[in-house]
Design a protein that fits this description.
Number of helices: 2
CATH architecture of the largest domain: Beta Barrel
Number of domains: 2
Shape: globular
CATH class of the largest domain: Mainly Beta
Length: 132
């Protein structure tokens, strides 16, 4: 269950591809976190991440959790963005049998399911094959 207050707090990383960069060592993290894992600094700043990347691994869920069964099969991929940051996210607008490692993808905003709790329509970032 996702509450409106949580959606509001996470809106930058949920609806835009925003991470944080450590001001001391330059490490970049997504999703954002309060402390740098490398140097333990708390001096982090928001940074817009590239919207394009390549699939470096993926999996296909043929029996997804309740609430997502009408979307089966679901494809999730580990995407390495152009700056090297890795994001695990669902794929959209793709035939599961055509997904391959090395495929170019781009981030898009999509509705994640049909269930609307508290009057909030659930959206999130997904990746789709890059149209050239």
């Amino acid at each position: 269950m996702t509450y409106p207050a949580r959606i509001w707090r996470e809106r930058h990383s949920r609806y835009r591809l925003v991470g944080v960069r450590c001001k001391k060592c330059g490490a970049i993290y997504y999703p954002p976190r309060p402390v740098c894992e490398k140097c333990k600094s708390r001096e982090l700043e928001e940074v817009e991440l590239p919207r394009r990347g390549k699939i470096i691994s993926y999996t296909i869920l043929h029996n997804p959790p309740v609430g997502y069964r009408d979307q089966a099969p679901l494809v999730f991929a580990l995407v390495e963005l152009e700056n090297g940051v890795r994001v695990f996210a669902p794929l959209t607008d793709v035939d599961p049998h055509s997904v391959e490692i090395g495929m170019d993808v781009e981030a898009v905003l999509r509705r994640i399911n049909r269930k609307e709790e508290y009057g909030v329509i659930p959206y999130a970032l997904k990746f789709r094959p890059l149209i050239r």
